[in-house]
Amino acid sequence: MDLIVQQSREIIEKGSKSFATAARLFDTKTRDHATMLYAWCRYCDDVIDGQELGFGQQTPPKEIQRASLDRLYAETKRAMSGAEVTEPVYLALQRVTRECDIPEQHPLELLEGFEMDVDERQYASLDDTLTYCYHVAGVVGVMMAMIMGVRDTQTLHRACDLGLAFQLTNICRDVMEDASVGRIYLPLDWLDEAGVPTDPSRFTDHKPALYGVVRRVLGEADRYYDSSLKGLPYLSFRSAWAIAAARNVYREIGLRINRGGVTALDSRSIISKNRKLYLAALGGGRALMSRLPAGQPNDLDRSGLWTRSIPA
Q: How many CB atoms are closer than 10 A to CB 205?
């Protein structure tokens, strides 16, 4: 294993155990590329939120966040231009984007998502929330699909759908944690309809109504989880297995929130290692089904789902 892949793998093992579990199902080449992409994504997230490998969020002052974001833009553009870079995460980004022919547009779209956080963007509607979800997760799904060799627009849409579902689930899981640092990603109009103040410091006084909004958002996430399944037949078997496994693990978080009632908002849902392995095995069954005629999608319509803009 070369040094860049090894360093990237160390980041993924510490920073996302769920992703690390699913990534083991990829073939070696795909796994190495996915790991290098993840290392850069994890690094950018940590820099903006003042954390380490996803833990210890401190939310630095805005001027520090802005300066950090400017550096991320500059170094990312430098790496994508083919210029000499020395930091391992930028070497990883440079290599994976070159070897998998990932356009510069997509890493920059991810940074635009972090910029939304720095700018304290508000999300008035579900469409606004989904736009944010695209920039911080949907575009990662697109890049991951490109790593797996996908280039057709419809399958890239399905990959984006899975990223949207992941992020909607994250928003629901972390709603109280985000509120503690002044962030709201739930649609403000839905909160207003439910009688929940859009002041995050008051969420604790309106948990039953807030939980109703969370469940409504999880219902939206399920629409994107369902859509993502229609992309599995267009992936290699091992890639389909890895993606189905990741889908199962993330969706399990939403299912637990739905089953847990209002108290589910009080702590993060944790999926045990054994449960993850079971869900990964179910993913293998789903991947096998996608190889059979009965598993082929007979309805490719995405009407009513948020759709990313594609440059002319």
A: 11
Q: What is the mean pLDDT of residues 63-82?
A: 94
Q: Do 195 and 155 share a structural domain?
A: yes
Residues above pLDDT 70, as percent of the chain: 95
Query: Domain total for the chain?
Result: 2
Contacts of 293 (CB under 8 A, 6+ apart): none
Cβ contact 137:167 at 8 Å: yes
Lowest mean pLDDT among 27-31, 63-67, 284-288: 63-67
Can you tell me the distance from the alpha carbon of 78 to that of 94, in angstroms, rounded to the nearest whole number? 9
* Rounded Cα gap, residues 208 and 205, in angstroms: 9
Are 74 and 143 in the same domain? no
pLDDT tens string 241-254? 999 999 999 999 99
Residue 274 sits in a domain of what CATH number?
Answer: 1.10.600.10
**What gap in Å lies between CA 43 and CA 128, rounded to an integer?**
25
Give the Cα separation of 272 and 253 in Å (integer): 11
Asked whether residue 147 is domain-assigned, the answer is yes
Categorize the per-residue pLDDT at 21 as very low, low, confident or very high, splitting at 50, 70 and 90: confident
Contact 129, 123 (CB under 8 A): yes
Amino acid (one-letter) located at 1? M
Determine if the pTM surpasses 0.85: yes
